[in-house]
Amino acid sequence: MMALDVITSACSVPVGECLSQIVEGMMEIAQATKEVLVKKESFKELSAYLERVVPVLKELNKKDISYSRNLNSVIEILNQEIKAAKQLTADCTKRNKVYLLMNSRTINKNLEEITREISRALGLLPMASLDLSTGIIEEIEELRDIMQRAEFRAAIAEEEILVKIESGIQERVVDRSYANKLLVHIAEAVGISTDRSALKKEFEEFKSEIENARLRKDQAEAIQMDQIIALLERADAASSPKEKEIKYFTKRKSLGSQPLEPLQSFYCPITRDVMEDPVETSSGQTFERSAIEKWLADGHEMCPLTMTPLHTSILRPNKTLRQSIEEWKDRNTMIKIASMKSRLVSGEEEEVLGCLEQLEDLCEQRDQYREWVLLENYIPLFIQLLGEKNHDIRNRAFVILCILAKDSDHAKCAYFSSAPLDSTIPLYETSWVGCVDPSPPERIVNVDNAIESIVRSLGRRIGERKLAVALLLELSKSNLARDGIGKVQGCILLLVTMASSDDNQAAADAQELLENLSFSDLNIIQMAKANYFKHLLQRLSTGPEDVKTNMASTLAELELTDHNKASLFEGGALGPLLHLVTCGDVPMKKVAVKALQNLSSLPENGLRMIKEGAVQPLLGLLFQHISSSSSLREEVATIIMHLAVSTVSQESSPTLISLLESDDDIFKLFSLINLTGPEVQQNILLAFHALCQSPSASNIKTKLTECSAMQVLVQLCEHDDPNVRANAVKLLYCLIEDGDEAIILEHVGQKFVETLLRIIELSNVEEATTCAMGIISNLPEKPQITQWLLDAGALPVISKFIPDSKHNDPRKYHLVENATGAMRHFTASTNPEWQKSAAEAGIIPVLVQLLDFGTTVMKKCAAISLARFSESSLELSRPIPKRKGFFCFSAPPETGCLIHGGICAVKSSFCLVEADAVGPLVRVLQDPDPGTCEAALDALLTLIDGVKLQNGSKVLAEANAIPLIIGFLSSSSPRLQEKALNTLERIFRLPELKQKYGSSAQMPLVDLTLRGNSRMKSLSARILAHLNVLHDQSSYF
């Protein structure tokens, strides 16, 4: 660094040396301006000017010039301004940022003066005598002109801050919020952190600068800065809570305990009330502004007191009087706030409510009063009042707590203070020392369970709930309070309930509070357990890997309703979980799979998983034969089963969705049955059972047949695990139900029949019993199979599942239907001995009863069996014995059967008439199912076979069967129509029946001659010929 100040006379040093020293100084300044803390752009502009001046001075230094008066002045001015610029740059590099901001106008003024003085020095150069080039002369002229007009202005933000400071000082603003906002704006303007500790440190350095100003005897600056400090020190960050407490209690102790009466000068002469905005008129008298303005507005021109003329435009604020009034009010308010505490503790309800109302009013008036309430340690008392029975007291306490909580972090921290409730000791003399650093454990204890008391009110009346959630929301803006809120038992559950309430404000506050509490994964898990999944889904999508795993684990463990499962998929849970399945490590895969297992049980979720490509990754995991991940494969198998179930009902899906798209997938999945444990086996069997009910059932059954699934399933029906055994039976039932007879016979043997009967007798799984019975029902009706059934004792086993009364459990309908179908094995007319065994087991009356009380399937199966029984009746009917001896002494002859002519009985000849089956069979003809009607009609037609036509037709006529048979001519079933035609063709051979029913059959018969097939047309014409409607030579024959 050179020392320009050592140059006392320019004449004593050669001109070139002086110019070199000035150039060096300018370059040093240009470099130093890069380090300034404030006004960077202004200093950058100064640096740019100096960098343009330097070449000019270097050019001058090349000339052989000697001193002149003008040149001497130039050097002296430049020397002086370089010194000033160096000092200004040094100050703006080292001094406190806030101090520099407060002096920003002065800094700008100094920069302008330095720039213009350097411009003036350039103007004094004797250019005519220096033999300078035209270019240098033009550069000097241009530079001098620019620098002369240079203006350094404060930034908009800086100017706004200075204006607010001036306004606050002039208006004597004492609001803490004003100071808080102002201090934040200052921090942002000078580029420092708005963190409380950083602001505190900067403010302390600022005050140190003021002390330095006093030491420099710069009293004007010190006074101005003291006013700024007085304004800013009301900010929370400007002084610690402890400092504020000491200052407050020192002042409060000096006031005494009795309020002062207002001075007479405080009263407005017009209103007779203490003034709030006193103004002085041209008469020298002071009035309340609103009162004197109204006086003048009413047309008065004279002063109310002196009766002298008033200048209506002159109303000067009486700031001195206003300050005195405010000081008097503050003194009395401070005493009032301190005195009400004891009344709140020991007063009656009305007195407590009165005190709370006054405190609420004071807290709403000024932030300074709110601060005094805090310093008097009212917070623990308000918390205690939240436990009062009177809800008005609780609500008032809540309102005040909300006001205080919104006021400052100081108040929020006070909720965790440990000062005693009844203490009158200043807070700074207790263990509580403020919230600047709330980390030490001894300062983070609840005030009489503050948060718990507030949370308790979330379950009360709506008004109190709204106040409680609003208070918790405000508290949650403090890290300390936020940590405590989520830990209160039941809090998050109550908030989730409120988040969906009808009250919009309460719901919005609850949602925002849950948002604030979502900083903690534990809180998010609690929200999820309360069915609020928003933040869990966010973490699952965007959180770190360990957090994603934690969220997936939570989903896996939750007990979810169907609505929850649907909303989670709608909220986007599937994508992140599939990502974990495909890209995560083994632990991540496990939790993701477990979560998907939980969610996939909802069919609509299962369909969505299939659509979004979940199947192949899951099958990939399932096909990995790694012993260490057997549990993972079990869970994947469960998901596959859920997805298969989801494909069964696809009414809402515009396009049909298949789980297994390729034959290879089908074969590989089924092959795992022989390679895995019972859990996986069970779920694979369930999956294929579901697929056999889906739209792709036909293809699935075909492919299973191709891979010899029936053989595998027959073996699994003897599996040790009851669940595997039961599900194998279920799937086998699906395959046999519509299976190829040759394939069934290939795999079904006597041992398997015995296995099925054991399952029917011993299984505790009703569905397995039903399916085993269904398999027997669908076995081919071959003599060998029937004999195996009889040898294994199947008849009594099957019979006991067919109810012998109309009281049939609807839950067992399918089982009874299968049992009724299985009974057909023993009713074939080709083997009367089997029929006799079934009849002796009492099956015929049960079948007759099913005709009236069974389901459509039961009725059909019963009718088929009865028809087969009836086919043997004629041969089994016993001839009527001839009477012996004298007719007058012998017993009356036995009455023969009207149909069969001989002696009939239910168990011996299986006669339908004796079994009272005709009426029930006729009623079955009215069943809406054509197949069931056809079975009943077949049974009835056995009564008119061959020689039985005459008597059988009479029985049918008496049972009103013939009109129903005529009705079948209009049936939608061609088989039933044709069967009705064959029946009527025989019945109408009888003249009496032709005459009675012929007319009602004519129109349906004529219709069939027009629209029936050729056979129906021919039969219809033949019957019409019987009815004399057509002659025998008609072309219809």
Automatic annotation (TrEMBL):
The keyword Disulfide bond does not apply. GO terms for biological process: cell surface receptor signaling pathway; protein ubiquitination. Keywords: Coiled coil, Repeat, Transferase. Residues 196-223 form a coiled coil. The keyword Transferase applies. Its EC number is 2.3.2.27. It is an enzyme of class 2 (transferase). Pathway: Protein modification; protein ubiquitination. It catalyses: S-ubiquitinyl-[E2 ubiquitin-conjugating enzyme]-L-cysteine + [acceptor protein]-L-lysine = [E2 ubiquitin-conjugating enzyme]-L-cysteine + N(6)-ubiquitinyl-[acceptor protein]-L-lysine. Residues 261-335 form the U-box domain. GO terms for molecular function: ubiquitin protein ligase activity. Pfam families: Arm (PF00514), U-box (PF04564). SMART domains: ARM, Ubox. This is RING-type E3 ubiquitin transferase. It comes from Salix dunnii.
